């Protein structure tokens, strides 16, 4: 593996007496793309949120770019600047234009002046294929376009790693492909990425590694061919078979519309 960019060591997180992460060990190399899959409630979001300290771990250590972010004396703001995060919900400011949504955090958090922030905003809107929407307001954009703006907003901060938490799960199926295409391009540019997703085609084609989580532990960690193509563990096989056959889906675990996305493929431009 190349230089480790994210190191997670015996990470534990409890909410009250509910132990949600039960000793997670994971290393992600610089430029690596790791997809995290697993049933609802298995701790995927909590893992991502512990990496950028949106949640405080109960035990273990997390290092990003060699800096221990779980060190009590760490500068949390400095850590967060190195880590971009994209959520299922885009959380754009509705009263600000697309460009203003990208310049505001740069100016507030990084202290960039207006011209510099606007220049970086334009570069990153081009990166996600939305230069023509610079002056538009979020409400006039499709969900897929709004998510691409959210990705550009994160990129404009110059992160070293990008975390994605089910970035396409809230989108209508026909809008998923364009967002995945942007993420695929980012992966090809060498961004270090940790992606929680149910998009198995994306995971197969883009991920260097796939991690399967269940009940707060990593059950399998390997290449996509190993984990998706030829899972060694019964829990992984069970999870994948339910994704592929929605009729088998546990009602409380799989929302509607999720399973039918499996192996549909990315439709957007590559
Ligand atoms: N802020 C919180 N307070 C209490 N329990 C939480 C909180 N966040 C997550 N949990 C619990 O942690 C478990 C794992 O949740 P989560 O990490 O969101 O799983 P996943 O993303 O895999 O669906 C769930 O049982 C959830 O109810
Ligand atoms: Mg989640």
Automatic annotation (TrEMBL):
SMART domains: AAA
Subcellular location: Cell membrane
Coiled coil regions in record: none
Basic and acidic residues composition bias: residue spans: 255-270
A GO CC annotation given for this chain: plasma membrane
Keywords on record: Amino-acid transport, ATP-binding, Cell membrane, Membrane, Nucleotide-binding, Transport
Keyword ATP-binding: yes
Keyword Membrane: yes
Catalyzed reaction equations: a polar amino acid(out) + ATP + H2O = a polar amino acid(in) + ADP + phosphate + H(+)
Disordered, as annotated region: 247-270
Single GO molecular function: ATP hydrolysis activity
Enzyme Commission number(s) of this protein: 7.4.2.1
Domain ABC transporter positions: 6-240
Family: Belongs to the ABC transporter superfamily.
Protein name: ABC-type polar-amino-acid transporter
Protein species of origin: Streptomyces fagopyri
């Amino acid at each position: 593996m190349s230089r480790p960019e994210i190191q997670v060591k015996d990470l534990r997180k409890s909410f009250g007496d509910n132990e949600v992460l039960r000793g997670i060990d994971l290393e992600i190399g610089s430029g690596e793309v790791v997809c995290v899959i697993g049933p609802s409630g298995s701790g995927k979001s909590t893992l991502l949120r512990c990496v950028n300290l949106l949640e405080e771990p109960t035990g273990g250590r997390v290092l990003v770019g060699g800096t221990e972010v779980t060190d009590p004396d760490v500068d949390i703001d400095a850590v967060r600047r190195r880590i971009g995060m994209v959520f299922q919900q885009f959380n754009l400011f509705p009263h600000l234009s697309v460009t203003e949504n990208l310049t505001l955090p740069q100016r507030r958090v990084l202290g960039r002046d207006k011209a510099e922030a606007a220049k970086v905003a334009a570069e990153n809107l081009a990166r996600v294929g939305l230069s023509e929407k610079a002056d538009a307001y979020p409400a006039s954009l499709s969900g897929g376009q709004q998510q691409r703006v959210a990705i550009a907003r994160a990129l404009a901060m110059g992160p070293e790693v990008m975390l994605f938490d089910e970035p396409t799960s809230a989108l209508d199926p026909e809008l998923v492909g364009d967002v995945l295409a942007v993420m695929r391009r980012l992966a090809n540019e060498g961004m270090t990425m940790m992606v929680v997703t149910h998009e198995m085609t994306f995971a197969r084609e883009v991920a260097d590694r796939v991690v399967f989580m269940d009940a707060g532990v990593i059950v399998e960690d390997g290449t996509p061919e190993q984990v998706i193509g030829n899972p060694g563990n019964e829990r992984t096989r069970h999870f994948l078979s339910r994704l592929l056959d929605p009729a088998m889906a546990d009602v409380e675990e799989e929302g509607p519309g999720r399973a039918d996305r499996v192996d549909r493929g990315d439709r957007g431009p590559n």
